[in-house]
Amino acid sequence: MNLTLDFNNCMINNIGREHGLKLRDIDALQGRAAEIHKNLQARRKTDIGFYNLPYDKKLFKDVLLLSKELTDRFDNLVVLGIGGSSLGGRAVFNGLCHPYHNLLPRDKRKGLRVFFCDNIDPDSFSPLLKTLNLKKTVFNVITKSGGTAETVAQFLVINDLLKKRLGKKYRNHIVITTDPVKGPLRKIAADECFNSLPVPPNVGGRYSVFSAVGLFPSAMAGVDIKKLLAGARQMDETVGASDIWKNPTYMSAILQYLAYQRGKNISVIMPYSNALRDFAEWYIQLWAESLGKRVNLKGEVVNAGTTPIKAIGTTDQHSQLQLYTEGPYDKIITFIEVKKFDNKIPMPRTYKDVDGVGYLGGHTMDELFKAEQLATKIALTKTGRMNYTIAIPEITPFTIGQLLFFFEVQTAFAGGLFEVNPFDQPGVEEGKNLTYGILGKKGYEKAKTKIKDHSKNRDKQYIIG
Ligand code: PA5
Fold it and tell me: pLDDT (tens digit, 9 = 90+) per residue, 89-99?
C-alpha cells in the first residue's frame, strides 16, 4: 500500500534548462531539511500536536462509542463548523463514502446522511433546516476556539429551533467539539450537559482532521476510522526519515519551495478522481493559511506564500489546462493519481464506423481516464511546465489516511523552508476581530474605529451604478 512520488517532470532532462531543476539544487537543501526535521520531531512532543493524533487510543474509543450510540438514534448529521473545523471531515466524507451517499436508503449506506454547513449564507442554511426531519437529526458544532462568529451563529439558531420543536429533548441533538477546557462553547457544553468531544490545544484547526473534528463526522458517516488512522500512522513512519531521498513528503515540499524560488508562485493540485475533490479543497486551506505570511520567523516582512489552486482531472482539462500549458510559467502542478478504480465500465463497440466515436469501443472508462492523465502530463512536460505525481494504489480509508497525513507534514516542513510559522493565521484573526467590532462584541471597540475610518474613505467617483 505504498504512496509514490515521481518528480521526473520537474528535472532539467525532462522540462529543459530554463525551468528544470538540477540534482544539486535539491541536494543543497539536505542540511536545512535535517535541521527542520529535528525541530519538527522535537516539537511533536510539545506544541505540534497533530503528529500524535493517530496514536491517541482514548480519542479513538470516545469517538467510536459516541458515534455508535448516535448512529442508532438518528438519520442525519449536520456539521456546523468552518475552515479547519469543516474541511478535513468533508475531505474524508467525499473521499470514502459513496458518491451519492446522502441519496441512498439507510440499508444501502454505512452511516448517517451527512451535511456540512460551513457558510452562513442564510439562503443555504435555512432551506436545509426546513428540509430535514429535526427529530432524526443530530448537530455537531465544531469550533476549536469556541468563538468563531459563523459557527456560534449557527449554533444559536439550531439550539433555539431544537428547543422550540423538541422541548427538553433538544440536548440529545447536539454534540459540541471544542477546546477541552476553554472557550464559550466549552462553557455552554458543560452548563447544558451536551455530549462533547475535545480538540487538543496544541492542534491547529487545519491540522485537526485526525482529532474528533474529522473523526467524529467520519465515524457517523460509516467510515472505517481505524483504517484511516492506521494509514496516517504508516505515513508517520515514512516521514520519520530526515533523508529527503527517503522521505516523499519532504521532497514534495522541496519541489514546491524550489519552484517558488524560480517564480512559480501558484501551486496547482490536480487529482484525477472525483473522490478527491474535497481533499483538494482541504489542501488549499492547509497550504494557503499555513504559508501565506507577511513576516518570516525573524519578524522581517516577506509576504511569503504560493497560491494554491484546485483542478480536477479530466474536468479542468477543459477549463484551466490551456492556461497551464501556454500561459505564464508561474505554476507547479501536483497530480494525484489513483492507480486502481473500483469500477471499470467497458465502452460498447457501437458506432464503430463513425469517425471520432468508434475508437473508444472496447476500451474501459478508467483506461480513458488514465490516458487523459498521461497525455496531460506529457503536454505540460513538453512545454517546460514543472509537474510531479503522487500516486496511491487505490482509494481506501488507509490511503486517504496516508494522503492527509502526508500533506500535513509537507505543509509543516514547508513552513521551515519558507521560514514562516505554518501554525498561526494572524491575517484571519484580523478579519474575525473586525467582524466582532461591527457586531459590537465587548472588547473590540478599537476595531469599530477602523471600520468607521474605512467607511469615511469611500469616494463616490469610484462607485458606479
Ligand atoms: O485552520 C484554522 O485554524 C482555521 O481555519 C480555523 O479552523 C477556523 O478559523 C475555524 O476556527 P474555530 O475552529 O476556532 O471555529
Answer: 999 999 999 99
